[in-house]
Specification:
single chain, Rossmann fold, 2 domains, 6 helices, 15 strands, 23% helix, binds S-adenosylmethionine
Length: 247
């Protein structure tokens, strides 16, 4: 069990205008067996099992509640180029991944796609050729306690051991080299998803798929998600954000 601890932002009126002088603070607590130290004072370990409002030894209020999967997921170790949540959400929506789905994924990288899908699906097997990245995905699997995630140190382009797979997700430099493996592993009617951060790579993949009569290209989507700042009269797109990626 892990807990989320949140301190609301602190506001002040200066010259008739409201300013945020301390932003929202959010902590993930994974060890509930000892006191938790914050810059606002100490939360005693007996309060860590509670849900609701608690105070530090300095009288500062925090909200405390059970951490959900997404709270833990947001703390996993990340290598560069981990897909964004909006993109993982679209993969799930378009392929209908559910509790009965059997999935193969490559490359594992830090396990961003594999771990999220394992949280939803029956079984996920992720392939990775880089041993350093394998260590990270194994740590993330442990941290998220995902028993249905299998990790293989194997080149997906050289073959997939699993058969009758519902969905295969690819996030690799040369995804077209994995098409033959994917064809043999997918069930009839299964989905092959390619996630490419670069449109030239997406185009090369789609053109390779067009040459294989066993696949039908359904769609290529650029998914733009724009976060907004909404604070009284200040209503505008958030200043810093990642809005672009290709599936
Ligand atoms: C962009 S990262 C993948 C990120 C990952 N999907 C995630 O969610 O964190 C690409 C990964 O593919 C791995 N890779 C490249 N070619 C591969 C192959 N043929 N088979 C398996 N893994 C491969 C790389 O070592 C790298 O870790």
């Amino acid at each position: 069990m892990a807990k989320i601890l949140i301190k609301k932002p602190k506001k002040a009126i200066v010259g008739g205008r409201e300013f945020t002088i301390a932003k929202t603070k959010k902590y993930l607590i994974t060890d509930l067996t000892k006191d938790f130290h914050t810059e606002y004072g100490v939360i005693s370990k007996k309060d860590l099992s509670k849900t609701g409002i608690i105070k530090t030894n300095k009288g500062k209020e925090f909200a405390i509640f059970d951490a959900s999967f997404i709270d833990l997921y947001q703390k996993i170790k990340r290598l560069a180029q981990m897909p964004l949540l909006k993109d993982i959400g679209l993969i799930i929506a378009l392929t209908g991944i559910n509790k009965n789905s059997r999935i193969v994924d490559a490359g594992a990288g830090s396990g961003g796609i594999a771990c999220f899908l394992a949280h939803i699906a029956k079984e996920v097997t992720t392939y990775e050729i880089n041993e350093e990245n394998l260590k990270i995905v194994k740590q993330n699997k442990e941290f998220l306690k995902l028993k249905n995630l299998k990790i293989k140190n194997k080149d997906i382009c050289k073959g997939i051991d699993e058969k009758d797979v519902d969905v295969i997700t690819l996030d690799l430099p040369n995804p077209w080299n994995a098409i033959n493996s994917a064809q043999k592993a997918l069930k009839i009617g299964g989905f092959l998803v390619n996630y490419s951060p670069c449109i030239t790579s997406a185009a090369e993949f789609v053109n390779a798929i067009a040459k294989n009569e066993n696949f039908i290209h359904l769609k290529t989507i650029e998914l733009i998600g724009r976060e907004w700042k909404i604070e009284k009269a200040a209503v505008r797109p958030a200043s810093k954000q990642t809005i672009h990626s290709y599936i």
